[in-house]
Design goal:
Elements: H1 2-9, H2 11-20, H3 23-49, H4 53-58, H5 60-83
Helix pairs in contact: 1-2, 3-5
InterPro entries: TnpV
Pfam family, one: TnpV
Length: about 80
């Protein structure tokens, strides 16, 4: 996603990364940062909203619904913070 963003919005930056051979390490590092941030945000939201293992044991479908909702919101945050910046 970020590569496509660079292609459309910052083509000079993309060309520089390609020519210096840094594109794939740059994208891999960005992907790692995004995944770590996603995990952190999800855990913080789960705690704030009381999505616990107890809920998972007692009401599995509710837990799945809430976790999916949290995941989607966290992804949106990551897209705006890391991917499209």
């Amino acid at each position: 996603m970020h590569r496509e963003y660079l292609r459309k919005v910052h083509p000079a930056r993309l060309n520089t990364l390609i020519l210096t051979g840094e594109l794939w390490t740059y994208l891999a590092d960005l992907n790692e940062q995004a995944q770590e941030r996603l995990d952190t945000i999800m855990e913080q939201i789960k705690i704030a909203e009381g999505v616990t293992e107890k809920l998972k044991c007692t009401r599995q479908m509710e837990w799945v619904r809430r976790c999916n909702n949290i995941h989607n919101r966290a992804e949106e945050i990551i897209l705006h913070e890391i991917i499209y910046s």
